Amino acid sequence: GVRPSRIEDYVLALICDDKIVGGATFGSYNEEQGTVFTFSVAIDSKYQGKGFGKQLVQAAMGQRYGVEGYFYVNVINPNMAKLLESMGFEEDLGGWSHDRPHMTYYP
CA 5, CA 43: separation in Å to the nearest integer? Predict the structure, then answer.
């Protein structure tokens, strides 16, 4: 059956030249070890490489509103993996790959 999600979701839009050129979803859920924050980022290919991805990641991370927890992200794009690593996210043991796409950040 259908059941409600345990995740609180938010959506962020990136607007440039009066057009939506990217966006992010952000959510959180509770586990025994604390609150887990997760997000997803997408940027129109014409606008990639201009720092918009970093802006969206920072905006999503700012949605914690002081709640303690950590970020756990499923990353499918190698460029995003490099960006997140530069921002302090850690790869799963063995490094990032399509087979091990998870990255974690402990603020």
Answer: 25
Ordered mean pLDDT values, 10 residues apiece, the chain (107 residues): 55 90 87 84 91 89 81 87 92 71 86
By C-alpha distance, which of 50, 59, 96 is closest to 76? 96
Nearest to 105 by CA among 22, 39, 31: 39
Amino acid at 58: Q
CA distance 71 to 35: 9
**29 with 6: CB under 8 angstroms?**
yes
Write out the two tokens for 25. 């979803």
Q: How many CB atoms lie within 10 A of CB 65?
A: 5
Residue 99 DSSP label:
S
